[in-house]
Amino acid sequence: MEVVDIDARAAKLGIDWSQVNFDSIQLPPGEDFGIESDDEAVYQDDQSEFDTGFGNIIVVDHLPVVPKEKFEKLEGVVKKIYNQLGVIKENGLWMPVDPDTKMTLGYCFIEFNTPQKGAQTRLFLMVEYFLRVSLNVWGSLQEAQNAKEKSHGYKLDKSHIFAVNMFDDFDRLMNVKEEWEPPQARPYVPGENLQKWLTDEKARDQLVIRSGPDTEVFWNDTRQKAPEPVHKRPYWTESYVQWSPLGTYLVTLHKQGAAVWGGADTFTRLMRYQHSMVKLVDFSPGEKYLVTYHSQEPSNPRDASKVEIKVFDVRTGRMMRDFKGSADEFSIGGPGGVAGASWPVFRWAGGKDDKYFAKLSKNTISVYETETFSLIDKKSMKVDNVVDICWSPTDSILSLFVPEQGGGNQPAKVALVQIPSKVELRQKNLFSVSDCKMYWQSSGEYLAVKVDRYTKTKKSTYSGFELFRIKERDIPIEVLELDNKNDKIIAFAWEPKGHRFAVIHGDQPRPDVSFYSMKTAQNTGRVSKLATLKAKQANALFWSPTGKYIILAGLKGFNGQLEFFNVDELETMATAEHFMATDIEWDPTGRYVATAVTSVHEMENGFTIWSFNGIMLYRILKDHFFQLAWRPRPPSFLTAEKEEEIAKTLKKYSKKYEAEDQDVSLLLSEQDREKRKALKEEWEKWVMQWKSLHEEEKLVRQNLRDGEVSDVEEDEYEAKEVEFEDLIDVTEEIVQES
Amino acid sequence: MTIECVNPEGLRFNQMKSSSHQTLETRMRPILMKGHERPLTFLRYNRNGDLLFSCAKDHTPTVWFADNGERLGTYRGHSGAVWCCDISRDSSRLITGSADQTAKLWDVKSGKELFTFKFGAPARSVDFSVDDHLAVITTDHFVGTSSAIHVKRIAEDPEDQVGDSVLVLQSPDGKKKINRAVWGPLNQTIVSGGEDAAIRIWDAETGKLLKQSDEEVGHKEAITSLCKAADDSHFLTGSHDKTAKLWDMRTLTLIKTYTTVVPVNAVAMSPLLNHVVLGGGQDASAVTTTDHRAGKFEAKFYDTILQEEIGGVKGHFGPINALAFSPDGKSFSSGGEDGYVRLHHFDSNYFNIKI
């Protein structure tokens, strides 16, 4: 079809091409109108075969075999089923009959409305598509496909389960060999070492940053006081990047889908996951699966937005399951709320097995298991009004919170449920509750529930904690109230792998910070307060991943105040400021901390690297700084005993590293000296050149100035380097021999 | 005044821990000169260094004693913001460029207006040639006219002064302002820089474009200021791209780049030590934070050769728009959006700074 024809047709239908955004038109998946795509990666080979023109015909098998009398009844039933799925062409249903027995043969052909053929250009294809969409009739090709998908496996009755195929697939099915041929085993090709970064000789950590169009991965080289580039790419991702939980992969987001990168030396693309317009991604904790999310704004603002979630196997790239539906099905917010669901929609159970994941929706918790990617026991758990769920980070225990109902007649409830048995391990009823927040300790030993309760007048709230000891018999619960129970709680954080937690409470701008331990010296079963620091400029808590150290940070409104605190000794190691800091992230080893000013505002974007005890190591400024993320490390293989042993004999090990440190610093100062020397020499050369030129031009200048000889600039002032030595103090010390 | 000295790594906030760090605190009181009611735009010393001329958005250029900051007089006559000025070698003539679409010649001593060059557009920058017989004046684009560089002959006797241009150079992009144009060595060239981020060297005789800064190494955003060395051998440009760059004036070779954290509005080079000073800050309209530190309204000192930051002089409550070194390099002054001129005489500690 010529472009002229297209224009003519468009004009006839009153379509203004300038109003049509071709990019916004999305062809349905698998639909190509018989036109081969040049993107081989997207379309498989079998789609390049000739179009037989039977694309709108399906074959329904496993129909009951009926005699002539019942023929019409059966025909009626089949028609009824398939009319729901598409428009059957007139006389489009043909059920062959055995000429001898006059019985049906147990199958039929159904032809849906004929699609328009002869499309040759992509433009025409778009015209077609646009027309169909605007007229709200979608071609029978899709109807057939749809009917096939929807009715395949349809149970007419116990013994008749439909087997539906496309007519076009017939040849393919006929050619299936009678005998099964075992697939050929391909020789094993070792892949790249995905863990190579862990074997860095200097035991450095990597971090990824995004600024402007660039995404860069660095080594954090604190000895050189500078980052060492690993890989840099402009437009590596179209929105953000994310490390997998064990650090093996870096995922990037694109229009077509997500991709993961990694490998031994530079970042190579390991796998792609097709999901157009993907917005968010999430890994399972053992990084076996990748969940991708896409939501589309509804054309009618009253409708809920459409959500599509896919779960991929990270290594094979295979899609394991996809979930489609309206946003309401994936969130508990009422209609008219935020567009899309709260992320992550699917929450993965703790541990590295990646066995279960759960979804919270209205009055239901759906727990899926990854063996079959279906619901456990094939049904969801009904929990009326549940608003929040939270997995234990290590076990398959789900904690859930149900708020008060019936105006306080039915108390609020926090419960622990064991998966997959769905047995309730423990539950607690709570009264006059306005809100609850659940915080698991990273090794799953404790669960803290922050409970906001109404005061008697119901005009204000106050907070307390319910502390669950998961690993103890019967899961005892302890109630903790702050010293001043009217204090507002600003932040809460468990010590990673530890038994302590920190709370910021009180009133802004100078709240207090308290530390508690789940043990006391005498009694391991009682919570005790360790210390309260009064009037701190802090609104966020950042524990070191190894525990013991914590940063009390005053982000944003507090201008980036940082206090590095040692909780073992209960002493401040350092106070510092990263002006306007918006983000803080510890490196996975707990040796260094990055503080960053991201482009929430435009000033002083960039990041600073600190040692764990608050010494500033270096600072990098980057305009339009969006993101910083340390590459996570998988858990150490060393046993706790071994780690303790190393900690005890640290002196033995540290000698070697101290020597290395010194070598590097010597080398650095040497390099620095040389660099300075070179710079000075280069500058001198310029100055010499300038002087001689100035001298050459002297006469001309004199003439210009009507003979005035006062080229005095050089004579009047002379640059001199003067060295001063100031004696500040002399002390005499008499050392007595004993 | 506080000059904070930092070690080569550029560590600034870590005074207590690092041993290599030194803090030089010199308590030198700057002289605050409040004579303008509007933001400062330009500062210039005369050749002897005894007078300081200031221009501001109020319409009155002012002359001060550079020693004690006493106000000597004003030059009344403009009816718009005054963007720029220059003083003749013998300190007898002053030329000013103003938004009232004129450039004026003044008698420095009497304050008398000698001549008015009329343009159809605001005059942005002015510069006397080596012999003071010529002046280069840039004008902005305005209704019907595009931005241009004009060369005027300056007569010995003001009676003979005429308004005709000897040469008019059109900027390639007439919609972009030419923020500064100065004479090259021996009046042979004119060096210009402006909003299109390019530096151009023109033949002052023929008006031919001789050189243009390389896009790769050059500024990325508007050039706001340009300051040349006393011997016309090199010059320093400041830009909104948060850098200042040092160029060879004859070959337009980029020699150094100084990077800071805020847009640069003003630059100056010490005639005495290898120091350059950058001033700037967030655009006044973009200053939204309540904390005065947020704007970074500091005059920052850099080592010319090593390109490393030496220290900063705080004080202005608003961006710095103008900077100038006295010809002996022993004092410098800064002019801010806040309407103040701050005059600093360095004390001995400044001359001892080692990095």
UniProtKB/TrEMBL annotation, chain A:
Alphabetic keyword roster: Cytoplasm, Initiation factor, Protein biosynthesis, RNA-binding
GO cellular component, as recorded: eukaryotic 43S preinitiation complex; eukaryotic 48S preinitiation complex; eukaryotic translation initiation factor 3 complex
Localization in the cell: Cytoplasm
SUPFAM superfamilies in the cross-refs: DPP6 N-terminal domain-like
GO molecular function: RNA binding; translation initiation factor activity; translation initiation factor binding
Signal peptide positions (record): none
Record keyword RNA-binding present: yes
Domain Translation initiation factor beta propellor-like: 428-628
Source taxon at top rank: Eukaryota
A family per Pfam: eIF2A
Keyword Transferase listed: no
CDD domains: RRM_eIF3B
GO biological process, one term: formation of cytoplasmic translation initiation complex
Described purpose of this protein according to its UniProt entry: RNA-binding component of the eukaryotic translation initiation factor 3 (eIF-3) complex, which is involved in protein synthesis of a specialized repertoire of mRNAs and, together with other initiation factors, stimulates binding of mRNA and methionyl-tRNAi to the 40S ribosome. The eIF-3 complex specifically targets and initiates translation of a subset of mRNAs involved in cell proliferation.
The family this protein is said to belong to: Belongs to the eIF-3 subunit B family.
Subunit structure: Component of the eukaryotic translation initiation factor 3 (eIF-3) complex.
Protein name according to UniProt: Eukaryotic translation initiation factor 3 subunit B
Organism expressing this protein natively: Arabidopsis thaliana (Mouse-ear cress)
Taxon lineage: Eukaryota, Viridiplantae, Streptophyta, Embryophyta, Tracheophyta
Automatic annotation (TrEMBL), chain B:
Protein keywords: Cytoplasm, Initiation factor, Protein biosynthesis, Repeat, WD repeat
GO biological process: formation of cytoplasmic translation initiation complex
Pfam families on file: EIF3I (PF24805)
GO CC aspect terms: eukaryotic 43S preinitiation complex; eukaryotic 48S preinitiation complex; eukaryotic translation initiation factor 3 complex
Subcellular location: Cytoplasm
Keyword Cytoplasm: yes
GO MF: translation initiation factor activity
Coiled coil stretches, renumbered: none
WD repeat residue numbers: 33-74, 75-116, 178-212, 216-257, 313-343
InterPro entries xref list: eIF3i (IPR027525), WD40/YVTN_repeat-like_dom_sf (IPR015943), WD40_PAC1 (IPR020472), WD40_repeat_CS (IPR019775), WD40_repeat_dom_sf (IPR036322), WD40_rpt (IPR001680)
Keyword Protein biosynthesis applies: yes
Family: Belongs to the eIF-3 subunit I family. Belongs to the WD repeat STRAP family.
Subunit structure: Component of the eukaryotic translation initiation factor 3 (eIF-3) complex.
Function noted in UniProt: Component of the eukaryotic translation initiation factor 3 (eIF-3) complex, which is involved in protein synthesis of a specialized repertoire of mRNAs and, together with other initiation factors, stimulates binding of mRNA and methionyl-tRNAi to the 40S ribosome. The eIF-3 complex specifically targets and initiates translation of a subset of mRNAs involved in cell proliferation.
Full protein name: Eukaryotic translation initiation factor 3 subunit I
